[in-house]
């Protein structure tokens, strides 16, 4: 599904790019050239996004035990770099024409083409971002955001061309290009920053909090403690590590069954492939104060109060106790 969608995005970007360069050929507008150059990035980005999604879909192997999903983060970062390079060229080209008086023709045709491409790019970008967030695909999200940015650019171009057409203010054409170049810089820097953060396994707060909410909603009394929770993203897939404290008087068979049940529960937190590694800790006497097992045969002292599991204490590599100092 994702690969077919990106192929469609690639073909659409090719057609739109050809139409924009044709409009530039007829009009000589710097703003339309800006739009056309930005479309080249759409084509290149869609091609690399297709390759990255294909590579991410390959199964794990001995050389890639966590899969190939991180290539999607690289694709997202590459798209950000391409946007920055295009923005730099557009800015230089526009500033050179800021005080010039080029001959502009057929601006009405340029407006029609820019408006049509803005509509198509906006529709495609919205769908790609939506599907990318649903499937946790950074490549789809990046490609969708880029198309959405291109749609905004198209609207800006239409406004600039309309203003130039009716007022004959030639400088508006160059100013519109400069404004959009600045917008492209912001988008490019944002994509590169997000890509680098993901490649360095920076915690995604939205995903982390969603996992914590899911755990607390399905928490069982036998899950005495959960800590050292770590979540890594490999493209659309997740890898989750945690330490789970269970009653120390349980036999190995019951511990195994409980871990299986925990993994099944955790595997439903998001509609994507999730790999879960659980390290089991035996309970300590100090756990009794917040342990909710009512028929515990080895309870050392009475239940005091339940400790709320939060993003802070679940990420720490230490058990939770009612005392101020954690052990």
UniProtKB/TrEMBL annotation:
Residues 209-283 form the Cation efflux protein cytoplasmic domain. InterPro entries: Cation_efflux, Cation_efflux_CTD, Cation_efflux_CTD_sf, Cation_efflux_TM, Cation_efflux_TMD_sf, CDF_Transporter. Keywords: Membrane, Transmembrane, Transmembrane helix, Transport. Its main location: membrane. The chain crosses the membrane at residues 39-59, 71-91, 111-129, 149-168. It is a multi-pass membrane protein. It is found in: Membrane. It comes from the Bacteria. Residues 6-200 form the Cation efflux protein transmembrane domain. NCBIfam families: CDF. Belongs to the cation diffusion facilitator (CDF) transporter (TC 2.A.4) family. This is Cation diffusion facilitator family transporter.
